[in-house]
Amino acid sequence: MAGKEPGTADVLRRVRELLDEYDPVSTPRLEFLRARFDAGLAWVHFPPGLGGLGAPRALQSVVDAELAAAGAPDNEPRRIGIGLGMAAPTILQYGTDAQRKRFLRPLWLGEKVWCQLFSEPGAGSDLAGLGTRAVRDGDDWVVTGQKVWTSNAHNARWAILIARTDPDVPKHRGITYFVCDMTDPGVEVRPLRQITGEAEFNEVFLTDVRIPDTLRLGEVGDGWRVAQTTLMNERVAIGGSELPREGGMIARAATTWRERPELRTPELHDRLLRLWVDAEATRLTTQRVRQQLAVGAPGPEGSGMKLAFARLNQAISGLELELLGEEGLRYGDWTNTRPDTVDFYGRDAGYRYLRAKGNSIEGGTSEILRNIIAERVLGLPSEPRTDKDAAWKDLPR
Amino acid sequence: MAGKEPGTADVLRRVRELLDEYDPVSTPRLEFLRARFDAGLAWVHFPPGLGGLGAPRALQSVVDAELAAAGAPDNEPRRIGIGLGMAAPTILQYGTDAQRKRFLRPLWLGEKVWCQLFSEPGAGSDLAGLGTRAVRDGDDWVVTGQKVWTSNAHNARWAILIARTDPDVPKHRGITYFVCDMTDPGVEVRPLRQITGEAEFNEVFLTDVRIPDTLRLGEVGDGWRVAQTTLMNERVAIGGSELPREGGMIARAATTWRERPELRTPELHDRLLRLWVDAEATRLTTQRVRQQLAVGAPGPEGSGMKLAFARLNQAISGLELELLGEEGLRYGDWTNTRPDTVDFYGRDAGYRYLRAKGNSIEGGTSEILRNIIAERVLGLPSEPRTDKDAAWKDLPR
Amino acid sequence: MSSAGLDLLYSDVEDDLRSAVRDLLADRCPASAVLARCDSDTPYDLDLWRTLRLQLGLAGLLVPEKLGGQGASAREVGVVLEELGGAVAPVPFLGSAVLATSALLGCDTGDGRVATLLGRLASGESTATLAVPLSTAPGSAFPQGVRADARGELSGRVSSVADATAADLLLVPGIGPDGPGLYEVAADAPGVRISAATPLDLTRPIADIELAAVPAARLVVGPTATAALDRALLTGAGLLASEQVGVAQWCLDETVNYLGQRRQFGRVVGSFQALKHRLADVWLEVVSARAAARAAADALAKGDPDTAVLVAVAQAYCAPAAVRAAEECVQLHGGIGMTWEHPAHLYLKRAKSSEIALGTPGRHRAALAALVDLPAAV
Amino acid sequence: MSSAGLDLLYSDVEDDLRSAVRDLLADRCPASAVLARCDSDTPYDLDLWRTLRLQLGLAGLLVPEKLGGQGASAREVGVVLEELGGAVAPVPFLGSAVLATSALLGCDTGDGRVATLLGRLASGESTATLAVPLSTAPGSAFPQGVRADARGELSGRVSSVADATAADLLLVPGIGPDGPGLYEVAADAPGVRISAATPLDLTRPIADIELAAVPAARLVVGPTATAALDRALLTGAGLLASEQVGVAQWCLDETVNYLGQRRQFGRVVGSFQALKHRLADVWLEVVSARAAARAAADALAKGDPDTAVLVAVAQAYCAPAAVRAAEECVQLHGGIGMTWEHPAHLYLKRAKSSEIALGTPGRHRAALAALVDLPAAV
């Protein structure tokens, strides 16, 4: 294998070897996952020794399909999505060897849950304006500030964190990226109740949290660049999931339409068909993006998918409530619970309608995504900026 | 009447006196119109002696209705709309007594047609950036530059014109407003063919046109402020016409729907109904604006009407083509003609579709109108501006 | 057809009424109080409702003076609803002072029992509701879910009724041996069971009503009953448009305020052109919605023959306008608009729920098709 | 149903084909030339069409090699249409190389006459069109306007036929004594009258065809004729989506270019956020339209059982996407976009006309309803 990127045959051989050695059904779950990781079949595009084989990323779906078909346990990817989707690629790209060795395996196994401490009440779309301060103190950094919209903070052992280490330089240049121990006594997690009634997210208050410098990711002052890796992966994760036809939000509306003829009206029919067409066109676009990635020619289309899915989810769930009529006046349950994962489809239409409102805010608002498309894809000039060169501390707030 | 604003009774008495003295049917048209002007019944809110009575503006519709009912001739307002709607209120507000006396009567009678020389190829939305130069030479100004989108330039005797008299001050402060004689040998009018195939507008090339200083309207350098009066009246004229229910662009679509059952489909039905509702809501809004004006409490709603009509006209005419199906593939006539007035409803659906595209551009683009609503009505802050304080000659172009 | 005779403005009296209601709501019904109540066992603010009824006399606006009411009209009710909508005030005004009252006014008001009930509602002594699902559109078939037996006892079920848990009096459409009728039922009569449902709109409770051989008094029967019910639904739909205007206006104002203060990228967020243009579009819809709602209220007040058209236009226009304004409010507030602690979600839930209430926009457009001779495809 | 087997990318061969067509069009078909031709008596660029046919062999892309064609597929035709759309090139490619050719391919290609005709089209010797109104949707009833008598002579009228004035050969659906048939008619046969109509789309001429006892050869009859016509319409509709992508992409690119240069208020206009956001939305639609059009082309190429669904999706999505891109192009160009001298209007007219061609989006959505089991309300 040395010197040459492994291909489909190599990867499939590895899968067979793993399955031969560890019976996927009878082997204890964690033992099987450890063996899978060590066989380089966790994320095949990662380097050997870190759960991968240095193979093309597209082969991962082949591995996943084979193992699923054999009845093997998975690492509950929905439960540990932030670790897998955001922390891992960032640690891989910017971490030291020691950091990679320490964090990646337990992360992938799901033994340690990760969360993300980026957004702040005063720094949402303008994330680079963040005010959480990290001050050097010997071998440690002392961190104080407030973060918000943190999923899974209450379950997390580790967090990826960005904080301001130099307020005297322009805002993008004074940020540093850390791994934060969520068990530090200075970390306080409070549930943040949202529009749906439940508390899927948290506010996190950091008070004199001590982070050893060995948990810094990337250079001091280089945190904004490091965070771009995280954010890019976040948007890909949100917008890029593979769907079958009529998958996603359109499924429930279509099913209701088929099963409840008494609810149908001509105007709802055409609106449903429009959304069905939009959903299918968006699905085909996602499929085309994946095909581009698979042949190593990524197009700019990926940036649009999160935008498209947000719009679709909102329009479809809005229609669904109108279609349901009287039932749309009712809601399942306003109880303030703390779900670990979001399940759009298992709940009622009112929940879907409300939760989908977040799709155009979380992980980059649709407005920010349109800016990005206009500037980075279409090459239109950015707007006059007054905040790029001034020291962070001098910016109006 | 002295000391007190005339009311409905006064105005109606005047109308009766006019009709008693001049038989509306047998009196030669121009003679009747002159008598009407001199009776103060041309525009009742103008001052006495200038065609008015100093009466409330709302009473004009009472006069018009009475005279129309009596079979009196009108001054063909559509043919001389620019004079009536834009030049006249500006001359009234900013003209000297001599200018008012000289221009208003022939303008209202339709003896002299007016046009408007404002827009330039490089100064559309940013009208204040205009580059046509006017240089003082003794008692005259010598004007050179290019104007565009001038309706009726080929029929006009007079024009209202804005030109740059001082390039060394910020752009809004170096503009002066003139009345321009369209028979000056330096004025060249060229038809400008448009998307519909016809040339409704013109380009006007000005080469060393001499304008006596007595034809200046307002102070030197105050032309931007004077022009605001013109533009405000233009937008009111465009957006504010009174319509019966199902008047305007929706009429033809609704008629086609009723008369051609074979064209109907369920999806077009709901779309037509949506637009019918939008048209009716917009009509009611216009009516509400008129009622506010009539009681002397103008609301900000007027600013939105041009925006609303542009959107409606475009959506309805687009639907009409889809409804017509095969017929929508055909066009009436691409011959390059020079119409004096625009008649949306007398022509084919393709013409309506194409001509309506101009509704969101002419007289202030919909984008500029949204800026105005956001800033002047909603009070949102303007964007960072770099062009307001620099001398015009130093601006990038 | 031209509606040229409509008065689309607010009179001085109406402006005064608005001020009185607005001042009261500002004082007694701030967003924080409404929010706190959503998590409580007392979703209605009954103290506020008492003040509105007894002190301001608003429950009797539609009731003629000779029956103990204010002798006002749908115009004034529209103004009150704009303010109640702007505060998402949790009071049973729509159910009692609009729907139930209009239904009674459609009965024979010379009938002693009807007059007495109207008097009780007008005086504020009673709170009523009309026992139909809140989603019922004007022009719907007479409800078949409740039957009256020969003795006039009612049995059946009506779901998703607005304001039922606040009512002591239920007006129940039921089918009896003589055909459709409207029945008076005491909310605490034996055999009545009113169970609160979980509403999408936290500030307008709904409930399911079960009736098991409940003693009831028939107020009206036959075509008059059908007409009375339809009149109530038409009045409710037309005036709900005013409430939607109030909701939309609050959403617009709140968003403009927030964007005028919030800073990102070293700028006030409200200076970003894309957001300004969207708010300009919302503003235009709110302005147009106000004209449409005013037209419906004035037509209802005058008994204009054009009323059905103007009500359908108002609902078809105002319901989506309110939803859009609320959706933009949530979106343009960013994360804070997604939190429970910010009141934006209350308005979103009200707007979306009201879009379904008393007929969806699509239902009203379909009604319009028949009214203005734009027939469906065959 | 999952279309997982679709190839939505462009192959290297397709990229080369695109380059060849694009280079030729850049050289021979600039906007100025297309505009000048609109005012002339020769709306088609027959020199260009000759080059495309004879030099590049594009007329025979769909024709199997053994019949003298290129043996390519709908995928390659889609690429050519993207480029022709991007140049609004006035050539009868859609009528001849797509519609007429597909109709012939739906006949028995073992039949000598059919094979000969396909050979003539593939070699570029002949130009044909399918004599149906351009607005005809796949799945429409077989046209009834032309009748064949017992001797096989055709009489009747077909209006708004695309590319008829450029054709020497007409494929005419007609009803004969044995039922529906497809007939071969020479454009210059006695009794044929082809009158140019005034098209909304200046770059795709249409004409009315009148037939008075015209001698014709029947190519196919009965259900096969119906199927051949429908196959042609389905292929045309699916591939028109690619043309629409070309139109939309040009409109987007041109607008981005213009806004990147035009200055107002001392700024490049393309830096205004409201315009940037609108262009981002147009971009997203164009990107999605491309995926939908690619899917339809690949399904047509493979004879995928899912083809009808993917064609309906492509038309329902791409047609309005092209209209929107063209409308935004005109609007964001401001005044200059309204002038005859700027080519934007050619694209607007093509986009709007194509929205009607081969079935409106609404028609395609209605077709989809049956295909994916989302039945209409009853």
From TrEMBL, chains A, B:
Which PANTHER family does the record cross-reference, listed alphabetically?
Answer: ACYL-COA DEHYDROGENASE (PTHR43292), ACYL-COA DEHYDROGENASE FADE34 (PTHR43292:SF4)
Per the database record, which ranges form the Acyl-CoA dehydrogenase/oxidase N-terminal domain? 20-111
Q: Which residues form the Acyl-CoA dehydrogenase/oxidase C-terminal domain?
A: 221-378
The reply to whether Oxidoreductase figures as a keyword in the UniProt entry is yes
Q: What is this protein called?
A: Acyl-CoA dehydrogenase family protein
Cofactor(s) recorded for this entry are: FAD
Q: Any idea which UniProt keywords this protein has? A: FAD, Flavoprotein, Oxidoreductase
Membership in a protein family: Belongs to the acyl-CoA dehydrogenase family.
Domain Acyl-CoA oxidase/dehydrogenase middle, by residue range, is 115-209
Record keywords: Transferase included? no
Can you name the source organism?
Streptantibioticus rubrisoli
TrEMBL record, chains C, D:
Ranges where the Acyl-CoA dehydrogenase/oxidase N-terminal domain occurs: 14-96
Cite the SUPFAM superfamilies for this sequence: Acyl-CoA dehydrogenase C-terminal domain-like, Acyl-CoA dehydrogenase NM domain-like
Q: Name the domain of life.
A: Bacteria
Q: What UniProt keywords are attached to this protein's entry? A: FAD, Flavoprotein, Oxidoreductase
Please list every transmembrane segment annotated in the UniProt record, as residue ranges.
none
* Name of protein: Acyl-CoA/acyl-ACP dehydrogenase
Q: Which InterPro entries match?
A: Acyl-CoA_Oxase/DH_mid-dom_sf, AcylCo_DH-like_C, AcylCo_DH/oxidase_C, AcylCoA_DH/ox_N, AcylCoA_DH/ox_N_sf, AcylCoA_DH/oxidase_NM_dom_sf
The family note in this entry says: Belongs to the acyl-CoA dehydrogenase family.
Question: What Gene3D superfamilies does this protein's entry cite?
Answer: Acyl-CoA dehydrogenase/oxidase, N-terminal domain, Butyryl-CoA Dehydrogenase, subunit A, domain 2, Butyryl-CoA Dehydrogenase, subunit A, domain 3
A Pfam short name: Acyl-CoA_dh_1
Q: Which residues form the Acyl-CoA dehydrogenase/oxidase C-terminal domain?
A: 233-369
PANTHER family attached here? ACYL-COA DEHYDROGENASE (PTHR43884), ACYL-COA DEHYDROGENASE FADE28 (PTHR43884:SF20)
Question: Does the keyword S-adenosyl-L-methionine feature in the UniProt annotation?
Answer: no
Cofactor dependence: FAD
